[in-house]
Write a structure and sequence with these properties.
By secondary structure, the protein is an alpha+beta fold. The protein is 40% helix and 15% strand. Among the domains are: 106 residues, 2-Layer Sandwich (Alpha-Beta Plaits); 30 residues.
């Protein structure tokens, strides 16, 4: 597989500032070949920004075309040849002149949609099952408030009711003027009775004297 690799760095790390120090990425050929054999990576081309490598000016960028079995192999290859502060980005590509037939073969293959495997549901022996699916019935919480507890005195009163006895009916009291009238009548009757014996005695005495 071909990978187009973009390599960038800061101005402070630019190789154009230190012409005597050649970067390992463009170092001795035997070193690059030994590392490529170890990681199964083949370098097809490497180009560098002219303003960067000559005058240490932007853009500070280099491009490489590598052939490798995986992206991990490309990252290990570039990481071994560049300083830690440099940034790399690898993009899989095709060389259309020589790989056109391969691209057409890949495009002719029908796309197979990815199908999720059906979930396995274990059947339950309980009665709460429906076609092999367990149905869980969750009862709602009881929100009915508890009745208030009765006090001891109320419980005794209900257990031993007290009978209610109505008082006897008493006649209404008479007015003071009616009471005085009855007293006067009684006094006058008593006086009349007491005067009758006296009058009778006087009459008898008068009769004896006349005789």
């Amino acid at each position: 597989m071909l990978f187009h690799v973009t390599i960038t760095h800061s101005q402070a790390d630019c190789p154009g500032r230190r012409p005597a120090e050649t970067p390992e990425l463009i170092g001795p050929a035997d070193r690059l070949e030994a590392l490529g054999d170890e990681l199964s990576v083949t370098s097809h081309s490497l180009v560098w920004g002219a303003s960067c490598i000559l005058w240490a000016e932007p853009e500070h960028v280099a491009y490489a075309l590598l052939e490798a079995p995986s992206l991990e192999a490309v990252e290990r290859y570039i990481g071994a040849l560049t300083p830690a502060g440099w940034v790399t980005r690898a993009l899989p590509v095709f060389m259309m002149a020589t790989q056109l037939d391969t691209v057409r073969q890949l495009l002719s293959v029908p796309v197979m949609p990815r199908v999720q495997p059906p979930g396995v549901v274990a059947e339950a022996d309980s009665a709460e099952t429906l076609k092999g699916l367990t149905v869980g019935i969750e009862e709602p919480p009881d929100t009915t408030p508890a009745p208030p507890e009765e006090q001891p005195d109320q419980q005794i009163t209900r257990a031993m009711p007290i009978p209610v006895v109505e008082p006897p009916h008493e006649p209404a009291a008479e007015a003071p003027d009616q009471q005085l009238t009855r007293a006067r009548r009684a006094t006058s009757r008593t006086g009349c009775q007491s005067t009758r014996p006296a009058a009778h005695a006087r009459n008898a005495d008068t009769s004896r004297r006349a005789t």
